[in-house]
Amino acid sequence: MEAFPPPYVEHQLPLIVLSGLGERIDDSQIEALLPRQESGTKISTSSAECEGDRAAQLLDILLKHDGREQAWNATALPGPTTQLKYCMKVIGRTYILPPRKAAPLPQSPSVEAFANTQTNQHHRSTELHSPLSPLSPGSPIYPDGVFTPLWFEKHQQQVPALFLAFFKIAAGEDTSMNEQIQIDINAIRTALSRSGFRTRFAAVLMSDTSILQSPELEERLSAIRRATTLDPKSGLFFMPPMSSQAEMSTFVHSMFATLQPLIVEHYRDLTKHARRKKARGGPASSVASSIEGSPRSLSTPGWNVRYEVKQGVFAEFRQEMEVAERHYTAAVEDLFGSEGIFEATASWSPRWDEARLLCDSVALRVVRCQLWLGLTTGAVISWVNYQARMKDLVDRRGKGSQTYGWDAWESRWSEIMAQLIQRAALLDLQPSNKHDVDATTEIATMRLFAQPEKSLATLERLPPFHLLHHPGYWYRMAFRSENTRRGKALTIPEEDRSPPGQSPASAVAKRTKQYDTYLVREAHEEFAHDHINRLSDLAIAANQHFYARDQFRSGERLTYDLAVEMVSARKYDQALELLSPLWNTCTWRHDDWAQLFRPLLALLHVCALRTGNAATVAETAWELLAIAPADHPVHRSEIAQYISEKCADTNVAVRLENSQRLAPVTVSFTFTDKETYVGEAVECQVTLTSLTSSETSTLLVSRVELAISNGRKLVLRNCDGDDKDDQPKAFVDLSAAQEDGDGNLVATADLRLQSGLIRVYSLFMTFKEAGIVRLRQASLFVEGEIFSLEHALTDEDLVRWRAVYGLHEGQLMQTPLHHLDTTSVTVLPKPPKMQIVLHGLKKEYYTNEEIHLEAELINEEIEAVKAHATIAIPHKQEHFATVRWTKDSADLPSEFTIDSLLASQCQKASFAVQTSSKPSSFTVNIEVDYALEPEPDTYLTKSLSLEISTIVPFTANYTFGPLLHIEPWPSYFMTSPDRGIGDAEGIPQQWRLGCTISSAGLDALVIRGMSIVADNVGGDAACEFVEKDYQDTQSLPPAASTRRDFHFVTRKLSLDDRRPTTADLNLQIAWSREADGNQFIAHMAVPHLSLPTSEPRVLCTVLEQTPNAADLVLQYHLENPSMHFLTFALTMEASDDYAFSGPKHRALSLAPLSHLRVEYELVLHDSVYTSSGEEGSWIWPKLQVVDSYYQKHLRVQAAGPRVVVDEKRGIGVLVEEI
Asked: Where in this chain does the entry annotate a coiled-coil region (predicted)?
């Protein structure tokens, strides 16, 4: 936009003149650039300016509302519905407004004038217009011009929308100061009224004290208000002293909120005035025809353009960008119309270029408005359409689009688009922060181009170019057009390159008709102009945006294109400076884009030769050998000779690394085996392949060095001329290579490489230490008289080759290798021949078992050895088991020494493993460190790991129930004389714990005994076991089971204690694998027991001795251990299996702490005996016991032999055979 006058491209902001706060230098300089107003209205006041820190702070706050440096978008510069931004102009006490009407032309009275006194011709000829109107003879666009930049300057820099004056008022001053303020305010208002402009006025009175502190200020303010007739709300503001900038900011914000409607109304009035003039169709025809000496006047379409542009500018002042865009578009259409300026004006006329300048500026404003409104795709479409229309116009009416002037216009138009996008600061096109974790691929794509607006997003065939891309693309378009302009400038004929003063008139006339010089230089100046600086600026601007969005390839290509132009302009130093970073960092080398990288390399090589940069010449020549075409000079001689010729006076030493540079030779290294042992030879192959062109002479490699991670090197040296073969061999056997004094393997071989030839060098290496040996670096050396080059390869991927070569019938064949990492080999220690054999292993092992095993050490070495054997469990598993060596049932340390174990001899050692009480898995490690007697310092290690898992040997199921305790209950009224102070006093209750033990292992186990132990008895109770243990021996096969019952009695320590009794019991099983084997104890926890002690219950037993008449006597024992009187209702139900003797219905009352027995004699029917089995018959008597008070059914429980409880049928009694 620099080619246009600044007023044409600046964004319009409402102009506010600040008077009385001092004068800023920047504004003074702007004023100096404006034309001097000789006949304008002068505004001058006599009041002193407001000075001091307070005035300076207020001015700074006011200038923060200046929006000239803000981005061109609705966020930075909001519309009239919110807070506007302004163009602030700071002046002193004097200001001159431009004249609104032009000065009248000097005239002398004539006879014809007096003769025509009856007509109004004299009136029309003397009618005055704006000094910038085409109707004013003194106007720069008189008589048929459309517009001048001075009109924009007039409204942006001279005619304010608001004149804001600041005066200082103090409480202690006399009334003369008030009068002076009144005089100055009235003088300003009079001058503004006399000027003819509708500028609004407001005054700010700054006081050092507030009205509360100085009440007399109220009277002075009222006097000023009455004398000036200013509106107290929008014309006169009082500013008391303020303690902070925040208060000042609030005051200024409130003041502008009040004045903003007046400012907007000012530009609305100007818009209405322009609209009325357009509605009248421009000036009257009589006025236009009366212009003296005018060959022609401005046409009606021209006047329409003026009014549309004015309305657009005034809408832009109001920040109504949608309205402005509509008027600007109408102005462009009028300019391109069939009767517009372009069609009615000759292309050689200066008015043509003025119209083009105006049209370009208005089109620029159209695009700016669309970007402002977020119509990104619409802005691109407007840009493209305008370019096409202008090209068609230039081809039809101008001098064609084949001139350098048109390319300059296209470059300028593309650059304008880039600058507009930058000033718009669109959020969708801002480069994403590289450190932002939310910068996803989708967001990064949005940073390259903006999404189309909703009205166009539904179009299926929207061209990609119609999406608004970031400024880098537009700068690149400008670069290409500028490059085309330079190419056409260089083709200007010789006769057009001389200045007009040195050329014949006919040539000058021809040149005028042939070249389009709109905003460009004449042909003779264009040819001599240096376009490289302009191209460089555009490329730098474009690359800033490309690199900010990680579009490195686009930036690299643009840099290369710029370097090409520099080379064509013979600026080799600048081209070398530009190409060197690109050569070092470009992605073309790594992406194998030879079509791009090859010309870059050749161009850099030329620049290095021209500038004498020997190092760059050597490096580029080395890379060109790999990709340059066959006809390149670098292929015509050996590389060392070529560089020596080109850099004859300079010693060149170059070192390259990895893929930093392309190499014409590939180096591959392979270990044929994945593993080897100390002292054994392993084959390795070095493969060299030439990538040069078929026309290249033989490439001679001086030597190849391969550095191994253990500090050794493998060196291949080029042999002398006498040792070279006539025809290089593909496979070279170097197994006879010897180590030098430093331990490096050095071999001499023919290192001549022909194009496309693969040469394989086979060697054997041995290692003295165990570990992983890896290729650390492979280096190629090419050396000459004044030249040496080393290309080091430290990247394993560049030297790794997953195949091994061999000769088959004279042909080179390759065999794939199965291991991936072929550049490394694992050197294992010398394999031990000591064997460890374990004896006595079992299928399963159990908890709390002590395992006894025997380890046999067998010496299969050819020499006697001295050994140290250790046994241990890993530290993390030590809580699972313990291990120790044993001998004759005695424990030994964890390590024992064998002083001498002859070859083929063996020695046994026993060890014991004590397992824990919980199931677990652990490892027992046996490690034997031994040394051969001839080599006492070289130790070998043989190890064995034994995985042991332990399980619980038994599983148990438990049944629990009450038993009848026959001892009498304690009484409150009687105390036993035998009871001690600490004895239990509670009611004794007997219980039965049934344990069913099953074998859980795969081996038959022997149960040596069982016992029950009380780990904890809670609730202040005592526990006494009636049957505590069983000591009988029983063999338990796998999956078999056995049952044991344990009886115990619980008693509360206190008779008054009603809390439940809790018991934690532990079942201990003594077992062994064999009847006479070692005995182990298995601990099995019984589930937690909670025993009620104060609840009533009913127990059922069978009387063993029955009367003759009865077959069976049932005894029901009702117990009331509570402290309440309880009454129970008993009901015996009849049955088909028996007849009973006793009450069918009965009520019993039990005193506290008492129990009662109820008996029923049963006579069994014959059917019972008929259906009996081997054990007998079962009957199911049903006695219902109900608590009469709580109506609660008490469940009858089995409390003796021959009585069981079933969940569904209740109590069952076994009837034995009689």
From this structure: none
